[in-house]
Write a structure and sequence with these properties.
Blueprint lengths: L1 H6 L19 H6 L10 H9 L10 H19 L5 E9 L6 E14 L4 E5 L6 E6 L3 E5 L9
Antiparallel strand pairs: 1-2, 1-5, 2-3, 3-4
Amino acid sequence: MENAKEKYADIITLPHHKAANRKPMSLYDRAAQFAPFAALVGYDEMITEEARLTDVETPLSESHIEVLDRKLSLILDMVEEKQHPEITVVYFEPDYRKDGGSFLQAQGTVKAIDPIEGRLIFYAANGISDGQVILLSCVRRIHGESVDFLDI
């Protein structure tokens, strides 16, 4: 280390050169020069994805499944009689990138229940076309004036 001090002794105490006709570059702009040379492309996205939390799907009890089946049956009967109840559904949506998923809530007017395909179909905002479609196997709770009396 002593050799370096001796070698550069004539210039080590000189002031840093600043151009008279240019203003100094900001630290932000200086850092931006090196951005294209990121050594680990995609690393930030991978860390963000790994840090994203998911919920765990828990199996339903027999009594809970029975209550859901009764509510869905009641809603199906109402739809067949041309009544379209307003309900709120809590359902589990699996995450296709990692284990788990998330519990979501949908509210709307039921257009149809398709027991063959296992789907609950809401009316769209315009009241005419199909809106949100939820798989019956993902439904966890159903609330609404016409079905809440079936809760235990």
